[in-house]
Amino acid sequence: MPHIISSIRFSDYGGSDVLSLSNIELPAPGPGEIQIRHAAIGVNYIDIYHRKGVFGPKLPLPSGLGVEGVGEIVAVGPDVSAFKVGDRVAYVGGPPGGYATHRNLPAARAIHVPAGLDSATVAASVFKGLTAEYLTHRCVSLQPGDTVLFHAAAGGVGSFASQWLKALGVTVIGTVSTEAKAQIARAQGCDHVIIYSHDDFRDEVMRITGGKGVRVVYDSVGAHTFMRSLDCLQPRGTMVSFGESSGPVEPLAVGTLGAKGSLFLTRPSIAHYTADRVEYEGAAERLFSAMRDSTVVAGKPSVYPLAEAAQAHADLESRRTTGAVVLLP
Ligand SMILES: NC(=O)c1ccc[n+]([C@@H]2O[C@H](COP(=O)([O-])OP(=O)(O)OC[C@H]3O[C@@H](n4cnc5c(N)ncnc54)[C@H](OP(=O)(O)O)[C@@H]3O)[C@@H](O)[C@H]2O)c1
Q1: Which of 27, 147, 194, 246 is most buried, judged by most C-beta within 10 A?
Q2: Which fold has domain 3-124+298-328?
């Protein structure tokens, strides 16, 4: 039966002020869908790209927002056998619409949440933690003793990734914009921290590595860092360009990769690393088990009421947040 829910919506692409809380009618879940009552909702940089109408196909307007959440299943549509009413689930992906008290979701995107992990922590962890999981375990094959450069190391994904890389025996050079963030990055296991708002990170990487460069650069900052990141790689190193927080990366001539040392370049997306159900469940199990044994510890998230989603976006965009950002309905 349809019922009225509260949801953050927007009717124009633009700044955080386009977001507002509305009451909308939510239909009963359709075939293959579950209906979730959210306990906590994750905020991610991709939500900002969706709101601005940049990166990938634009969402048809008016639209909801949000691709990460945790909650209890309150209704199950036809043809769903793996989940039942009362199950606690988390999800990453599916159609945007997570910034809401309730939502319908394809059951294929849901994963069971083990007992012992609270919902706000899980909402702070699944998108960023699963991104860190595939970046550190499946996107590139890393060996103990490798050295990597990870930009925005005190951010949401950066916090999970630096801890995981450290646990894998990798030497991590992290970049951050402020001394306060540098302290967080060090506490999370970065062996070296560069404040890239003051220091040229390319010079610093070469100084730290004795001119050798790093095996992998993880770059989610994009426009402001991409070309200099290539210069930090050792010959046959790998550039993992996985975001564009500072704007899109300019087109690159393929020959540049040869000239700079037979480099590898990938532009991965979590969507392609969790599309297969078996891989998705395996990645979630690896993340939950790393959280249970404290290989990765989800820091305290920045928490906002659902109605203040616009403020959460403004803070994330202006680099005021550290770790993850969570909305509570
Ligand atoms: N490809 C994928 O599968 C995937 C999945 C998840 C996330 N991502 C990407 O990973 C990145 C991190 O996502 P997140 O949600 O965890 O965000 P976040 O790292 O918490 O926030 C972004 C950080 O980027 C840094 N930054 C550098 N230049 C910036 C600029 N001009 N404007 C804003 N921020 C800037 C800031 O850290 P400093 O202040 O320290 O510079 C900021 O805190 C995003 O680019 C996101 O799109 C990609």
Answers
A1: 194
A2: Quinone Oxidoreductase; Chain A, domain 1 (3.90.180)
